[in-house]
Amino acid sequence: MSSKVTFAFDNNPQGVYYAGQVISGTAELITDRPKTIRSIYITINGFGETRWQENVEKSSEDGSTQVKSLATHTSTEIYYTNDQYVYGQSGGTQLELPKGKFVFPFHTTIPPNAPTSFNGRHGQIKHEVTLTIDRSVRYNNIFKQCFTVILPTDLNAKREHVQPLKRIEEKSFWWGSIFGANKPMVMDVSTSFSAYAPGQKIHFHIALDNQSDVQCQDVKVRLFKNVTYRAKSGSTASGEKPEIKVNETESRIADKHCGEVLKHNKATFNEYLVVPPTTPTTLENNDNQPIKVSYTLRFIAKTFRLHGGGDLVVDFPLVIGTVPLLASAGDLGPGQTNSNSSGFVGAPVFQEDVSSEQFESNTYKPRYPVYNFNGNGQSTAGNSNGTTAPTPSLYPKAEDKPPVQHTANPVSPAPAPAPAIHKSPPYPTAGPNPGTNFEVLGFSIPPDYKPTPSAPADSSIGWK
């Protein structure tokens, strides 16, 4: 490969930033041969896009038949962009980039309202650094590096997040009515809070009173991630307003199996479900957002389909944030707390998204804050020695960062002056020195040379 670029973020090897922070680093360019270019520039940007296809039916021109076609719905939103020319200038003249290694710094501030990074089935919210070598004759050389941006969601900002989740549901089955005893299955579920952060344990209490004649095969607790994608369909060339299309997906990111409950029996389960590293809930009520994320905590009493009526299901909306509730530090279950808990949450570690979904060819997995809670309900920073790391600042000061050491921008070398060429004339410029040979038309004449005397006039020359 003729060129290679390695990106490095200052004091941030994982490339994770909060919205509003300063991002800085270097791009190391290595070229193995000279290049003729116009400029080199670094772009730092964030954007969101959605795209999917679906089969649609449209009436023919005469309206007699339905024509099937494949429609593409797409949308793009630019959140911020910043271009920095590090060599040359926009639309400049041709320059010579010599062979070698060069380090270019980059620096900008992420907007405080920049959305959290996301990679899903039908869309993405992407933040990346791009180095572009603008070539005058050939195609541009483009090198990219993604980084994670997190819009902070402090669960302590809303009082309703402290409220527990609690509900009682019952269900009857037609199987029992055949034998004249149509008693229900009753499930009472509750949690300590209605909002959690990745790494926390969702402690729950389940009391299942199976008065029916149907066996409960398994009591399951599942956490589902719900994503709503929005895109535009249609063309604006005719002046018509494009139609807004919506695509909703649901994927399971955590699962807990509690056990079975036989008919005419009761059971109680006090368990927990760990929240994996995942995208925080989208709290802004903006219908124009291309991607919105929400979560559902689902309790399921699984039964045989043959018995009719389906499963007994209880759903709760759950909020996932980036800063856990202070009151949840000592949570041991609904109505239970650890008296020894200090309420200090500590600093998180950043782990890759648990979801395996990706948008088209984007294989980058964003990293989200995860709080590693110990046995006392308190969080540690995840170090090997159990000590807490400093709490990350949302607005780091520039002077806290050491200066970046980098090489100077390459300068196009000035053309070397042509060497002076001295040509000898094809003839001698001075007479020969006495006593030395001299050259005439390539023949060497000795110094004692004497011309041959002319033949006498009366001499006869002829054939004999």
Automatic annotation (TrEMBL):
Keyword match Chaperone: no
GO biological process terms, alphabetically, are: protein transport
Q: Name one GO cellular component term.
A: cytoplasm
Pfam families to which the protein is assigned, alphabetical: Arrestin_C (PF02752), Arrestin_N (PF00339)
Residue span, Arrestin C-terminal-like domain = 181-325
Entry's InterPro entries? Arrestin-like_C (IPR014752), Arrestin-like_N (IPR011021), Arrestin_C-like (IPR011022), Arrestin_domain-protein (IPR050357), Ig_E-set (IPR014756)
UniProt KW NADP keyword:
no
Ranges of biased composition (kind: Polar residues): 373-391
Q: Which residue ranges are recorded for the region named Disordered?
A: 370-464
Ordered alphabetically, the record's keywords are:
Sensory transduction
Q: Which PANTHER family match?
A: ARRESTIN C-TERMINAL-LIKE DOMAIN-CONTAINING PROTEIN-RELATED (PTHR11188:SF167), ARRESTIN DOMAIN CONTAINING PROTEIN (PTHR11188)
What family is it from?
A: Belongs to the arrestin family.
Stated name of the protein = Arrestin C-terminal-like domain-containing protein
This protein's species is Drosophila willistoni (Fruit fly)
